[in-house]
Structures are given as structure tokens and as C-alpha cells.
Design goal:
27% strand, 4 domains
Length: 655
């Protein structure tokens, strides 16, 4: 990708969703392969990925496949074989976490750094660039100045900076969370996270006092950078990534379209920038991020630390306020909407908060207008007795609008590439040339004598109208030029065949011109890694990864947490989110507050969920929180399939 191009990078759970991501404006799509893709239930056969790649390349969109779990030694060879299969399928890049892959025989395909590589510093970003990664996704926790500092330390000609702009937020620095493995044996770094961060916890202070009860204190709101796109571009980002390889078709259509509209507006303002693929999108709906599942939105740390980044009350979708309860009957709920013109549909999803601030869902089986403006009687799918604390005066939100959902089940977008058509009269007959906005051309000829038009005044207009009928092809006419020796009549059937042949030849020319961007060449001699010691936090799970870091100057290399060498208490999660700050218990917040200054200390807190207990420790200098715990004996007893042990001391200490 060129430094002046902007890339909208959309997720795909499967090939059909990926195709719709392309139709709705994605310049690139990332998708999981049949294995090693860091999402256990989002795997796809290579054949399906090849189908997606063929479709995407028609528009110049690229396909990236996730190969981003940490790998055991016995998985390196299957991963190598898969990489070559994906290369043969036409994939444009592999997204990786495990540096061991750089030490094996991979195909000449671009490599991109996964979010699991946890790139937060200019030094690490520069290292990733220098070892041959062409695109790196930065940590979600970075601020605009931190992003700009990374751009200043890297080369835009060699490495594209990518950033998540929308979707669910992992509370931990990506790749730095081991709670799931410690408690269940399911490794987040191997694509099987149990999502302990979405559970409710009781929070106790060092004296055993309850600070918060049944709060989802590790659950973040969803990421939304809609208002920050210009600033992110100015900071040096060029690839804008939407989270969501588990998400459904409607989510991908809607969110891709939303950011396509926003980025196109910016491209109109700034002609020095360009799209990374071809074609213009027309949408048959109004994109709206609020319509999809979300936990409300935050722009996280991009504009600095804020107090309202957490979804502490519920990890569910609270929806939008729609009205309030006016009556509760034996089989129905009567609602008055906030706006009289609001329509409630059969199948809509409603919700409300009970007295304990827990979100309760209510799916509508049937909705009836009462005849009074804005008053509806809805009959829930479930028995009324199950709706706790549902009473008159309760605010009701809508978190699923079936009318909007059904709209996205239909064809909801068209993507067309602009083209110029030129019809020339030659000694042999007619020649039609179609040239697209990327400079590719397709030509077709119609031999034989030409007929003069019976109505010269309408002849040219009819030819232009007929030639412009590009129908369901990839192309839309920008202009039609006629270079004829006079008004001509051409039968519609012949003109249709001429146009069809020219379009086919243009498509063939686009396919022939497609080329995979080259693999970046690592700097020689190998550049040193920014540190000479690696703990379990580096996620080194095979000997090839160990060899990689040793080659780059690392002296001490511990094996990954999944190797079960860390039996005691360690940091199971490192996060920029701070529970003390969010609960107004931060010493920095107390500075200058009369009667409070000096009394608030960053002492540990405890998280309790049933029998699970975790300790929160606070490192105030970098403003980070560590969630501390130990691996369960039951998990420890489950010996890894391919255990690894590396030296924990420098060579001189082992003599």
C-alpha cells in the first residue's frame, strides 16, 4: 500500500460476509483460515478464502488471513503448509503473532503484525518493521501523540500503521492476558478466550470493605473512532480496522458502510490522499452504528484517559431509549414512545434495567398500535412472570429494530468502478474501448459495413444511451465518446454483444494486472530487539521463536505462560484501564482535594466472582493495572501437548 492511500479493513467470519464487506466499501478484508486463526469458531476452508480473494481482487481489494496464534513446535510444519496453500489461493498477506514463523520456509507473501504482538512503543514498532513486517496494528490504548511518535520512528515507505477504529475492546493489552488459561486452560493467545473480563465482580479493598458489588469492572464499552478519523490520519495511520470476526452479516455491512462514508468525505476534502482500492459505493440504507449490538461507545485513550470507558453495569447491548411503560397486563406491556412517530415491530428486541441495574431483555412476539398517538401494546415472546421489576414508569430501550434488520437482509449496496467508453469507426467497422479509472482497458470489434441513421438528430443519443447500459457489471459509465464518420445506426443486439465483449476483456485485463505486494526484506545484519531479557509475557512457545529472539540479541528467554512454568502468582492481565480511577479511588484524582489529599493510596484491591479471586495491583508511574493470580492446579496438571523449556539465566550464570 502506498503512503498516501487510506485502507478500510473489515472483518469477515466467512467468505459470504467478506464479499459483502467488499461490496460495502472495504479496501481489505481479514478472515480466519482453517486453523491457527485466534478465533476458535471463525475458521474457513482454503477453497472459500480463494473464492473471496477472487471476488475482492476484481475491485483491487486485498485479503489478509489470520495465522496469529502462538504455535507449539509440532504446529510449525502444519502452519508452514497452510501458509503456502493460502498463498496459492491468492491471499495478499498473513497476519501473525508468533515470530517463529519468520524462521521457517514461508511463501513470498506480505506479513502483518497481529494485535497480539502488543505494539505500544516506537522501539518495538521499528523492530517489527526492520524484521520484515509490512503492516503493524498498534495497541488500542495509544494516544494521538504516542501514535505520532511511532510514525516518526518508522518509515511510511516500508511499513503501514494500522489501528482499530470500531468494535469490542479487549481490556488487556492484546497478548498480555492469561486469566482464561490460568482458570480454564483455554488460552487467549491460542484463540480460545473464556472472556473473564465480561463477568461481574465484587470489589474489596485491602481492609475487606466492599467497594463495588456485582459490577463488570473489567468490561469496556465498545470502540468508536468516528470523530477522530482526521486526527488519526494526521498522526500517521493509514489502515483503519474494524473489529468483529465473530460478528454477523448485518454488523459488517453496516459498520463498513458507516466508515466508508466517513472516509470518502475525508478523501473529498483532501485530494492528496486516495483510496486503497477501486470503485464507488451506493448504499440502499442509512448506516448507523447504534443499530448493531454495542455496549455503548468510547474513543478509549486516543484523546487521553477518560472516566467513562467502562460498561460496568452490563456487558449486554443497552440499545437506545424508545419510551416508558404505562401499563403491565397479564400477557402484554403497554408503552408510550418518546416520539409519536416511532413504530414498534413484531420481533423487535426491547430491554430495561431492573432495580439492581441488571439489564433484562424482552423480545416482542406481536406489537399492536392502540390508536392513541405513540402508545403501543406489545406481547412478549416469554411469559410475563419472568420479567423482574417490570412496572409502570420504567424506561424501555430498543436494542433490535427488525425493520432495520430486514433491510440489511436484502441487497443493501452496489459497488461500481468508473469507466470511459469510446466508440470508434474503423475501416473494418466499429471498435469499442472501455477504460476504467485505474487505467485498464478492454476492447471489442464489430466488423462489417455501417448503416446511416434514419433519424440523424437522435442517432448519437441512442448510441450513448445503449452503450451506457452496463447493468450488473463492475462498471458505471463516466462518459461516452463517439468517433464516427456521421450519424450511424447499429442494431441493439449487435451493440449489446459489442459492449458485453468489451466488458469481459476489461475484466480480464484487471485480473491480469493484479499483483501481490512484495514481501518486505528484513534488515541485515539482524537488528537488536529493544530488550535483552524476555519473560513469559513475550509468548515464546516454540524453539523457532526462541531462535528468532536469540538471533536478535536477546540473552534470556522464558517460555510462554502456556508452557506452565509460572506456577506462582504473576500478572495474568496488564491493562491501561484502572479500576481505582474508574471508581474515583485514584491518588492522582485526590490531589488538591481538601480533606482527601494524601488519604487515598494505590493499595491493592481484590476481585471476587464465586470461588475465583484476583488481586488488582496498581503501577501508577506508567498508569497501568495488573490483575494478579495463579494458575489452577487442574490446569497445571494438564500437561501441554508440546512442552517447552528455555533457559531463564544468561549463559555466564549457568557455568
Amino acid at each position: 500500500m502506498l503512503p498516501h492511500q487510506l485502507e478500510l479493513l473489515a472483518p469477515a467470519r466467512d467468505a459470504d460476509i467478506g464479499i459483502e464487506a467488499v461490496n460495502h466499501g472495504a479496501d481489505a478484508v481479514y478472515i480466519g483460515g482453517p486453523s491457527f486463526g485466534a478465533r476458535t469458531s471463525a475458521d474457513n476452508p482454503v477453497k472459500e478464502i480463494a473464492r473471496l480473494a477472487t471476488y475482492a481482487h476484481r475491485f483491487g481489494s486485498r485479503i489478509f488471513v489470520t495465522l496469529n496464534t502462538i504455535l507449539r513446535d509440532d504446529e510449525l510444519e502444519p502452519a508452514r503448509k497452510l501458509a503456502w496453500q493460502l498463498f496459492d489461493a491468492g491471499v495478499d498477506a498473513l497476519i501473525i503473532q508468533d515470530m517463529g514463523l519468520l524462521e521457517i520456509d514461508l511463501p513470498p507473501i506480505q506479513l502483518h503484525a497481529s494485535t497480539q504482538t502488543d505494539i505500544r512503543t516506537p522501539e518495538k514498532a521499528r523492530f517489527q518493521q526492520d524484521v520484515g513486517l509490512s503492516q503493524i496494528v498498534l495497541a488500542r490504548e495509544l494516544t494521538l501523540p504516542q501514535i505520532a511518535a511511532i510514525r516518526a520512528a518508522t518509515d511510511p515507505q516500508r511499513c503501514t500503521l494500522e489501528f482499530f477504529i470500531h468494535g469490542a475492546l479487549c481490556v488487556a493489552y492484546s497478548g498480555q492476558c492469561y486469566i482464561s488459561h490460568a482458570h480454564t486452560g483455554r488460552s487467549a493467545n491460542r484463540g480460545d478466550c473464556s472472556q473473564a473480563c465480561r463477568l461481574p465482580y465484587e470489589v474489596k479493598d485491602s481492609q475487606g470493605r466492599i467497594v463495588a458489588h456485582d459490577k463488570h469492572v473489567l468490561s469496556m464499552k465498545d470502540n468508536n473512532q468516528s470523530d477522530n478519523l482526521r486526527a488519526l490520519i494526521d498522526a500517521g495511520l493509514r489502515s483503519f480496522k474494524i473489529e468483529g470476526r465473530y460478528k454477523d452479516m448485518a454488523y459488517v455491512k453496516n459498520i463498513t458502510a458507516h466508515y466508508r462514508v466517513l472516509l470518502d468525505q475525508i478523501l473529498e476534502e483532501r485530494p492528496e490522499l486516495a483510496r486503497a482500492s477501486s470503485g464507488e459505493c451506493t448504499f440502499h440504507f442509512q448506516p448507523d452504528p447504534d443499530q448493531n449490538f454495542n455496549r455503548e461507545f468510547t474513543d478509549y485513550f486516543v484523546q487521553g484517559r477518560k472516566e467513562d470507558i467502562g460498561a460496568f453495569d452490563t456487558p449486554k447491548n443497552p440499545g437506545r431509549p424508545i419510551g416508558w411503560v404505562t401499563q403491565v397486563g397479564p400477557s402484554f406491556v403497554e408503552l408510550e414512545t418518546d416520539h409519536p412517530d416511532t413504530v414498534i415491530h413484531n420481533g423487535d428486541g426491547l430491554c430495561y434495567l431492573d432495580l439492581h441495574k441488571e439489564l433484562v431483555g424482552l423480545q416482542i412476539n406481536r406489537a399492536e398500535a392502540t390508536g392513541q398517538p405513540g402508545v403501543w401494546r406489545v406481547f412478549p415472546k416469554d411469559p410475563m412472570a419472568g420479567f423482574k421489576d417490570l412496572r409502570k414508569g420504567v424506561q424501555v430501550n430498543r436494542n433490535r429494530d427488525m425493520d432495520w434488520v430486514r433491510g440489511l437482509e436484502k441487497k443493501s449496496a452496489e459497488r461500481r468502478i468508473g469507466a470511459w467508453l469510446t466508440l470508434d469507426e474503423t475501416a473494418e467497422g466499429l471498435r469499442l474501448t472501455i477504460t476504467d479509472e485505474d487505467g485498464h482497458s478492454g476492447t471489442a470489434a464489430l466488423p462489417g459495413p455501417l448503416q446511416d441513421a434514419r433519424d440523424p438528430s437522435q442517432a448519437d443519443a441512442k448510441l450513448r444511451e445503449n452503450l451506457s447500459r452496463l447493468g450488473d457489471t463492475l462498471f458505471q459509465p463516466l462518459d461516452v465518446t463517439l468517433k464516427l464518420n456521421g450519424p450511424r445506426f447499429v442494431p441493439a443486439s449487435q451493440l449489446n454483444a459489442l459492449r458485453r465483449d468489451a466488458v469481459e476483456n476489461l475484466e480480464a485485463a484487471r485480473v491480469a494486472a493484479w499483483h501481490r505486494l512484495p514481501r518486505a526484506t528484513p534488515v541485515e545484519p539482524p537488528v537488536p530487539y529493544p530488550e535483552d531479557t524476555l519473560t513469559y509475557l513475550a509468548n515464546v512457545f516454540n524453539h523457532k521463536a526462541r531462535d528468532f529472539y536469540a538471533k536478535h540479541g536477546v540473552k534470556v528467554i522464558a517460555s510462554a505462560y502456556e508452557s506452565h512454568e509460572e506456577e506462582g502468582e504473576v500478572s495474568l492481565m496488564i491493562t491501561k484501564h484502572c479500576v481505582r480511577f474508574s471508581l474515583s479511588l485514584c491518588p492522582k484524582q485526590a490531589k488538591g482535594v481538601t480533606g482527601v489529599q494524601g488519604t487515598v493510596k494505590a493499595e491493592p484491591l481484590q476481585l471476587i466472582n464465586g470461588k475465583e479471586k484476583l488481586t488488582l495491583r496498581f503501577d501508577c508511574k506508567p498508569c497501568e493495572m495488573h490483575v494478579v493470580g495463579k494458575i489452577k492446579r487442574s490446569v497445571l496438571n494438564a500437561v501441554p501437548a508440546s512442552p517447552v523449556t528455555f533457559y531463564r539465566t544468561k549463559a555466564a550464570d549457568r557455568i
